[in-house]
Amino acid sequence: MKNAILITAACLLALLSTIGASLPYPILPPLFAAEAPNAFNHYMGLPSKLLFGLALTINPLGLLIGSALLGPLSDRYGRRPLLMRTAVGAAIGHAITAWALLIQSYPLFIVARFITGLLEGNGAIARAMLADQLQGPLRLRAMSWLNGAFYLGWLVGPILAGATLAWGVTVPFQIAAGALMLVAVLVAVGLPRETPSLLTTSWWQVARDRHSLNLLRHQELRTLFIVQLALTCGVASFYEFYPLWLVETAHYHAQEIAWVNVGLCGTMTMTSLLAGGPSRHAPLLRAGWYASAVALAILILAVGNIWVGIAAIVLFGIPNALYNTVIQGWCAERFSAHGQGAVMGLLSTTFCIANIVVALGGSLLILVDTRLVLVAGALCAAWSAWRMHGWRRHLNATDAPDLKAAA
């Protein structure tokens, strides 16, 4: 019963948090692709596509900092208080975003998106909470369910955005703020209080000395970072630019983008609910297979027509969900000695770095052709798959003598 309550609370937390984060995404591409220039989408006379790329970059930049710091800080100060405070802060960030859109202030919009991203880096805390409390197959399945809850939030959020957009462009952001306030209440009611830490180390010292990127001092974790960064660059190119691809290829609006997103997130949610079971194949072998399938889906989107592209978008959810389940469970088992908050924070931080790299590079490539971003992403994912297979063979060769000596 205790484990059931813990998993349920974590999944509801992930669902409501992601609903709050995902509401804006169907709104942004049409907003910046609008033909009529205004103070928002042509700020200081800059090209609207460049402003769109910067708007995509600033939120992952906040996520990067938050993911690197919040996981290790929760190792020190506890999961529950950090989750409560970050949920309330992210709600305030969405409220500021709504105000920025109302007054058409691009600088205020950028500041608000940064604050929101900074505090939405709390996904690493939820994953660390499950990794702390659960073991073995139950841990792997619970992490898969948690991923499913995150994906379901990406499904529900855009639907709500499309349904409420007729009442005004600020309404979805107001809903996001309300959803995150519900998250804070859920955490306060559903999660048990933790024993206060007796350590007197300041939060600044913890943030400086224990942030997730410190794990890169270890060789295996550096390898993990490299292959994960390449794969997530491919995934980020897909996530960030397939809505723009839909706008340019078929002139889709926010509601139509939201429905395509329903298909994608529905596929990822169902896959995550069914994933996480035992397998006779090694985790890195499976991760390499799934990364190859991710690369293929992105490439098909880049070269296909609208209907082939939509099929690739929806089917992309299957290997992406399976990959995340496998790699998170494997990392929780292999690198637990480094602190679950820090390890899960490293995975989240890597994805944020990929988002920033892709948003910056993509904002330049889309000035030529949006499909160039997708092709580059497919190549990154394919290289990651190839590198994972090589890493697996290397680990098999180095781990075998240690196992024989232990025997």
Order of helices and strands: HHHHHHHHHHHHHHH
Find the structural class using helix and strand composition. Answer: mainly alpha
Report the average pLDDT across residues: 80
Summarize the main sheet. none
Helix content: over 70%
Rounded Rg: 21 Å
- In DSSP terms (H or I, runs of 4 or more residues), the helix count works out at 15
Gap between N and C termini, in Å? 37 Å
Q: What fraction of the residues are assigned to beta strands by DSSP?
A: under 5%
Uncertain regions spanning at least 5 consecutive residues: none
Number of strands: 0
Overall 3D shape: globular
List its traits.
globular
What is the strand and helix layout of this fold?
Layout (H helix, E strand, L loop, with lengths): L1 H21 L5 H6 L14 H30 L1 H24 L3 H14 L3 H11 L2 H29 L6 H20 L12 H8 L8 H32 L3 H21 L8 H21 L2 H29 L5 H26 L4 H37 L1
Short description:
The chain has 407 residues and is mainly alpha-helical. It has helices spanning 2-22, 28-33, 48-77, 79-102, 106-119, 123-133, 136-164, 171-190, 203-210, 219-250, 254-274, 283-303, 306-334, 340-365, 370-406.
Report on the structure:
This protein has 407 residues and is an all-alpha fold.
